[in-house]
Structure formats: structure tokens, C-alpha cells
UniProtKB/TrEMBL annotation:
<dbReference type="InterPro" id="IPR013154">
    <property type="entry name" value="ADH-like_N"/>
</dbReference>
<dbReference type="InterPro" id="IPR014189">
    <property type="entry name" value="Quinone_OxRdtase_PIG3"/>
</dbReference>
<keyword id="KW-0560">Oxidoreductase</keyword>
<keyword id="KW-0521">NADP</keyword>
<dbReference type="InterPro" id="IPR020843">
    <property type="entry name" value="ER"/>
</dbReference>
<dbReference type="Pfam" id="PF00107">
    <property type="entry name" value="ADH_zinc_N"/>
</dbReference>
<protein>
    <submittedName>
        <fullName>NAD(P)H-quinone oxidoreductase</fullName>
    </submittedName>
</protein>
<dbReference type="InterPro" id="IPR011032">
    <property type="entry name" value="GroES-like_sf"/>
</dbReference>
<dbReference type="InterPro" id="IPR013149">
    <property type="entry name" value="ADH-like_C"/>
</dbReference>
<feature type="domain" description="Enoyl reductase (ER)">
    <location>
        <begin position="10"/>
        <end position="323"/>
    </location>
</feature>
<dbReference type="InterPro" id="IPR036291">
    <property type="entry name" value="NAD(P)-bd_dom_sf"/>
</dbReference>
<dbReference type="Pfam" id="PF08240">
    <property type="entry name" value="ADH_N"/>
</dbReference>
<dbReference type="InterPro" id="IPR002364">
    <property type="entry name" value="Quin_OxRdtase/zeta-crystal_CS"/>
</dbReference>
Length: 326
């Protein structure tokens, strides 16, 4: 098969489209003919050499894909050859074929085309596992989504609204905030010009946020603890603002608040399978009803993965970048 590989750690130009050995499905795995993959921020870190794949995972980048089942490993009965699916991967999405544990394979939601479906597994599993399973967001609560215009953010806004929450977002420009409002965001904060703690408090009569989905890490830790409502839950999923911050336990304790940090890629297979199962049964009906829609900035041929990485690094991508296989 052909695949994108990282020839050496470095800038986007180290992504090279080249011949690679075909993967084979092991017991409990499914082999997919990949239709498309999508770019995640973690791919940029992997390319730079600072976020290696977990042991046993493919060296080919790509944490999600859509495609057609080409072969079944021993013991797989859930899918048939020819099924159109999408999948959460530990790696390998930027290649024409990938082997994936069956617990990470999802049907393509009805009404979503096969290529577009590649943009869903990572955002769906990340948002549902953190906002719903970990933080337990319920109707009537306030959800603050940092980076509302990104891949995760655009999905989280819609999930928050679907669950009946008031959704506040941060983004880097008025134009991007306006697009977040079209997706349902109620409270819009320009992070370059406004203080999110003040803005969210003012918009919620001093209540603050019941749940914060955070991509910034250290830089926003004090603000995130300040903005939490009583019994508030802060879930950190990204460290774009650094890894080491100061946590004011007095403030957290007074609010009976909690701070959790999670990652998806390194979780044991059983945990990933449980998340994927929840997504298929709870979230896919919302996608099939059109309540939660894929947000795709652009579809590029996979051979142009370097351009896709450059675009994500430069900023300005709204939602997801898809890489289509030839
Ligand atoms: N833990 C996990 O399992 C997991 C899974 C998936 C993703 N993630 C993480 O989640 C984060 C978002 O991923 P993604 O794929 O959605 O990436 P993305 O599409 O590149 O989005 C990144 C976002 O960061 C925002 N941002 C930059 N500076 C900011 C600031 N000072 N304050 C608030 N927002 C700021 C950008 O906003 P503007 O464009 O408006 O400037 C952009 O929307 C990344 O850190 C990623 O590593 C974690």
C-alpha cells in the first residue's frame, strides 16, 4: 500500500507519500481499505518527534479514518467485508489500509457520506468521553469550551446544545466566534481581547461554568478554577498553554470542584471500546438526526498532508481537515 510516513522528525515537509508493507488483521481486528483520514493536533506533535505512537501502534500517522471493511481477523463477527465504517485509531490513518481492533470500529452514521465520516471518530469519542462520561454534563448546566472554532470545539458546542446546556466558547477572532454562534454557542469570548472568567460570569449572572473543556492546560488553570461554578468539573484535554501550572486547592475545595486530565490514544482497548460503544448508541442518533453535524473546513488529497499540517499550524482552520485517499 501507499502511506504517508514521517521520514525524520521535523516540519511538514518530512511527511512523505511512499510504499509501505500492507497491514494484516490480527485476532479481533478488522482490515480497512481507507477512504479518508483527518488531521489532529497530536499528528503535528508526532511529526515533530515529541509524541511517539504507543507501543505496537503503526508508525504511519493518523488517529481516525473512514473506509470499507476489506478482511476480518479471527473471531470478528460484528462486521462483514464490504461494510462502510469509520474508526478510532492509535495510528495508521494516513495509509491506504489499516488494521484496527473491532471495538474501535463504528458504523458510518446514516446521512453522512463516507469521506466526511473520517472527521468524526476522534472528536466524537473525545467530546463524549470527557463532557458526558467524565464530567457528567446535564441539561440546564453551563459548558465552557475553549478553542470553540477547532475540530474538538465545533463538535463540543453542538453536543453541549444537544444535551440542553448553555454553551460558552473562546476563540481568536470575532469572525470565528460568529461561526461558533451559528453552531449554537450562546456566550462568545474573544480570548485575545477579553477575560473569559469575567465574560462567562457576567453572562450567567455570576454562576460560572459547571463544566470546562480545556485545550490550554497550564496557562488557563487559574482562570478555569476561578470560572468553575459550585460542584464544577474542569476537564483538561490539551496542553497548548503548557504542562505545569499552579492549582489553587483552596479555591477548588471551596467550590467542591474537580480537575481531571485525560487522553484517548493511550487508553487500554477495553476503555476505548466502551467509549466507542457509547458514541455509537448515544451520539450517532444525534448525528443521524442532524442535531450534531460534521464541521469540515476542507478535504485535501492525502499526498498533500504537508499542506494540511501547515494550515493547522498557521491557524484559521474552522472544524476539521480531511485527507482523502487516492
Ligand atoms: N486528550 C485527548 O484525548 C485529546 C483528543 C483530541 C484532541 N485533544 C486536544 O484538544 C485540543 C484541540 O484539538 P483540535 O483537534 O480541535 O485542534 P485544533 O482544531 O487545531 O484547535 C485548536 C484550537 O486552539 C485554540 N486556541 C489557540 N490559542 C488559544 C487560547 N489562547 N485560548 C483558547 N483557545 C485557543 C484555537 O482557537 P482559534 O483558532 O480561534 O485561535 C483552535 O480552535 C488540542 O490541544 C488537542 O491536542 C486531546
Amino acid at each position: 500500500m501507499q502511506a504517508i510516513v514521517i521520514s525524520e522528525p521535523g516540519g511538514p515537509d518530512v511527511l512523505t507519500w511512499t510504499e509501505q508493507p500492507d497491514p494484516r488483521p490480527g485476532p479481533g481486528e478488522v482490515l480497512l481499505d481507507v477512504a479518508a483520514s483527518a488531521v489532529n493536533r497530536a499528528d503535528l506533535l508526532q511529526r515533530q518527534g515529541v509524541y511517539p505512537p504507543p507501543p505496537g501502534a503503526s508508525e504511519v500517522p493518523g488517529l481516525e479514518c473512514s473506509g470499507v471493511v476489506a478482511a476480518l481477523g479471527e473471531g470478528v463477527a460484528e462486521f462483514r467485508v464490504g461494510d462502510e465504517v469509520c474508526a478510532l485509531l492509535a495510528g495508521g490513518g494516513y495509509g491506504q489500509r489499516v488494521a484496527v481492533p473491532v471495538g474501535q470500529v463504528l458504523p458510518v452514521p446514516a446521512g453522512v457520506d463516507l469521506v466526511t465520516a473520517a472527521s468524526l471518530p476522534e472528536v466524537a469519542c473525545t467530546v463524549w468521553s470527557n463532557v458526558v462520561l467524565t464530567a457528567g454534563l446535564v441539561a440546564g448546566e453551563v459548558l465552557l469550551v475553549h478553542g470553540g472554532a477547532g475540530g474538538i470545539g465545533t463538535h463540543a458546542i453542538q453536543v453541549g446544545k444537544a444535551l440542553g446546556a448553555t454553551v460558552a466558547v473562546t476563540a481568536g477572532s470575532r469572525e470565528r466566534l460568529d461561526r461558533c454562534a451559528v453552531l449554537g454557542a450562546d456566550v462568545l469570548v474573544n480570548y485575545g481581547e477579553q477575560d473569559f472568567v469575567e465574560q462567562v460570569r457576567a453572562a450567567t449572572d455570576g454562576h460560572g461554568a459547571d463544566v470546562v473543556l480545556d485545550n490550554m492546560g497550564a496557562k488557563y488553570l487559574p482562570g478555569n478554577v476561578s470560572v468553575l461554578a459550585r460542584n464544577g468539573r474542569l476537564v483538561v484535554i490539551g496542553m497548548q498553554g503548557g504542562v505545569k501550572g499552579e492549582l489553587n486547592l483552596g479555591k477548588l475545595l471551596a467550590k467542591c470542584g474537580s480537575v481531571t486530565a485525560t487522553t484517548l490514544r493511550n487508553r487500554p482497548l477495553e476503555e476505548k471500546a466502551a467509549i466507542v460503544d457509547e458514541v455509537a448508541t448515544q451520539l450517532w442518533p444525534l448525528v443521524e438526526a442532524g442535531t450534531v453535524q460534521p464541521v469540515v473546513h476542507e478535504v485535501l488529497p492525502v499526498e498533500r498532508a504537508a499542506d494540511a499540517h501547515r494550515a493547522m499550524e498557521d491557524g484559521g482552520v474552522f472544524g476539521k481537515l480531511i485527507l482523502r485517499m487516492p
